[in-house]
Specification:
Length: 209
């Protein structure tokens, strides 16, 4: 079994790319969904979060606004939050990979926003980075209506720069042109994963094996 790491900054179009891969039948581990489950009512991460940010958890329910504000205003809170969440996500990811191996999957995708930051790229055979122009990235996040422009800038500043991700990628998926073009790029990636030849990876925009 081979593993494709899928990553990209906030608002880059990673969720769209992941959905296309999943629709094509590739089994996918969604780190964001895992975090959401850990932070759901009475989730496994809530006791630790409640101790880290008093008042952020009430009656087993996370107040996301309180947690977001605390994390954006104090780097120590973000570090503490990562120390709680990352080991739990890693264990969930390991269980996913083990099940996929038992089931005989040819490829799986690890959809992890902090793939490089957490070192998860080390277990991947290839890494695809999803990218878009910075102006479009901000527009997309702003349209979600969950963060102010200042909060968006703070999140982007804390993430690995897009240029660094692109340099470390095996394949870059550009989502700033059109959905049709994104679909076309994902199809080329899927062909490379199934074909496996250097020519197929080159056609997908990938680096030589």
């Amino acid at each position: 079994m081979r593993i494709l790491g899928l990553t990209g900054g906030i608002g880059m179009g990673k969720s769209t790319t992941a959905a296309l891969l999943k629709r094509a039948g590739i089994r996918l581990f969604d780190a964001d969904a895992t975090v959401a489950a850990l932070q759901a009512p009475h989730g496994a991460a809530l006791p630790g979060i409640g101790r880290l940010v008093p008042g952020s958890v009430r009656d087993g329910v996370l107040d996301r606004a309180v947690l977001r504000q605390a994390a954006l205003s104090d780097p120590a809170v973000m570090q503490g939050l990562e120390a709680i969440i990352h080991p739990l996500v890693r264990r969930a990811r390991e269980r996913f990979v083990q099940r996929a191996r038992r089931d005989g999957c040819q490829w799986v995708v690890l959809d992890i926003p902090l793939l490089f930051e957490t070192g998860a790229q080390r277990i991947c055979d290839r890494v695809a980075v999803v990218s878009a122009p910075a102006s479009l990235q901000r527009q997309r996040v702003l349209r979600r209506g969950r963060m102010t422009p200042a909060q968006i800038d703070a999140v982007i500043a804390r993430q690995m720069p897009d240029a660094v991700r692109r340099r470390r990628a095996d394949v870059v998926i550009e989502t700033g042109l059109s959905r049709h073009e994104t679909v076309r790029q994902v199809r080329r990636l899927l062909h490379a994963m199934r074909e496996g030849s250097p020519a197929a990876w080159a056609a997908a925009g990938g680096k030589p094996a």
